[in-house]
Amino acid sequence: xxxxxxxxxxxxxxxxxxxxxxxxxxxxxxxxxxxxxxxxxxxxxxxxxxxxxxxxxxxxxxxxxxxxxxxxxxxxxxxxxxxxxxxxxxxxxxxxxxxxxxxxxxxxxxxxxxxxxxxxxxxxxxxxxxxxxxxxxxxxxxxxxxxxxxxxxxxxxxxxxxxxxxxxxxxxxxxxxxxxxxxxxxxxxxxxxxxxxxxxxxxxxxxxxxxxxxxxxxxxxxxxxxxxxxxxxxxxxxxxxxxxxxxxxxxxxxxxxxxxxxxxxxxxxxxxxxxxxxxxxxxxxxxxxxxxxxxxxxxxxxxxxxxxxxxxxxxxxxxxx
Amino acid sequence: xxxxxxxxxxxxxxxxxxxxxxxxxxxxxxxxxxxxxxxxxxxxxxxxxxxxxxxxxxxxxxxxxxxxxxxxxxxxxxxxxxxxxxxxxxxxxxxxxxxxxxxxxxxxxxxxxxxxxxxxxxxxxxxxxxxxxxxxxxxxxxxxxxxxxxxxxxxxxxxxxxxxxxxxxxxxxxxxxxxxxxxxxxxxxxxxxxxxxxxxxxxxxxxxxxxxxxxxxxxxxxxxxxxxxxxxxxxxxxxxxxxxxxxxxxxxxxxxxxxxxxxxxxxxxxxxxxxxxxxxxxxx
Lengths: 321, 284
What we know:
By secondary structure, chain A is α/β, with parallel strands linked by helices.
């Protein structure tokens, strides 16, 4: 299979500067077909700039990008035929109703037949739960309703790529859950590239994640790989009793790279970093238990939360500057 | 059943991409709302209201002595001594000023408001070319103003002046005069659109066209040759003892000059070109 068939977005050294501010520095990104790609970063990291470059709303200062194999600078309008986009702070014509807004949007993609377009609009309104408000002017809409309309207008054209800039930022927990459900439902039809700073959402629905900080990409990996930790495999143990001798014995093993010890509720918590997971699984628990005076109350391979990974990476990156 | 018929994709390409939908939206803002009625009524009161007052309510003025002190009357004075001609003159003069102010107010909002509110960024994230976006504004507002402020008012003024004269005016010269009035309006509309593409705040977008509209005597005092290349002579007396081109056309008088017509056309084309060039480089 041709690479352009599986890679939906690719950028090479994509950069954007505004006067002396480097909003995006040499971004190399690859987004695969039918993935839900979470684009993370603190405020001002360059997420929205990247999205605007992909959509042709801004021009790159350097580098290149391709969407569906087409150049983002030269073929922007052709690319946008296959994209649905929801802005971070979506703005519509306030005098229009939700239905009129979707009709206006749909007419950029479809010339007819009118009845079929209207049917698609009704279907989309139903999907986002706005059917009962379809004929009310948007100026009376709440933030959540605007966001739902935003999702509706972004996918009225059955896009091959859905670009969502902070889709759940202004929603209440119920609204957020609904948006995530819509995203999960759409994943079999489309590729979803979305920026967010709500890490729980990313962990829940994304399969690939990229982390951007101060305009630079600091990580891009499948979510599982990222959550496994970048510093190798780590085992977590909580031990009752005097464990210093056991710690020294474990630390001396060639497949153990570090043992971090911390007190916890009168017990001792170990974080054992290993280079050979098989050896660790075979020996680690057995050796500790062979010390007769020790009891192990918790043991397992450490699983990171995305928030931990994110804060650690962004923190390291900030300190390294 | 409608739902079983596949959706037909649009087939526009290049700069025309999204144009039909944008034109439908811009025309809809004029013709599928009450906006056209409001505009028609405003211009009816301002343009034809003044003409009606002059033709039907103002008393006959005795012929005034010649202003040149020789006792001879100029062609302009002789023509203006007839009330219907004066009515026609006032109508064409006012049509060259009042709707232009309207065009500037409408035109300044066309791009600036969309840039400031964020709706331009939203629309341009769809498959629409920036050229189509700008042209739809020009065509939508140009057509709206042409119908409500020029053609409709022209028809009513034509009927009024013909009734006052007791004979029908020749329609073709009158239509040509309306064409010149619209060309003048187009000059200011395209200028305002261009400024809306160049600037991000409304001050210069409104201020520059208004200064050109009302400050023409000042500019002509400094550089009289501007009368030949600017559109002022289309609707006002840019030079003493000469008729505006629109009035000369309507009254079948010799044209004082043709270059302002060519100038206005060229300026308008240039303004559109600059607006398109700039808007195609705009970042959102």
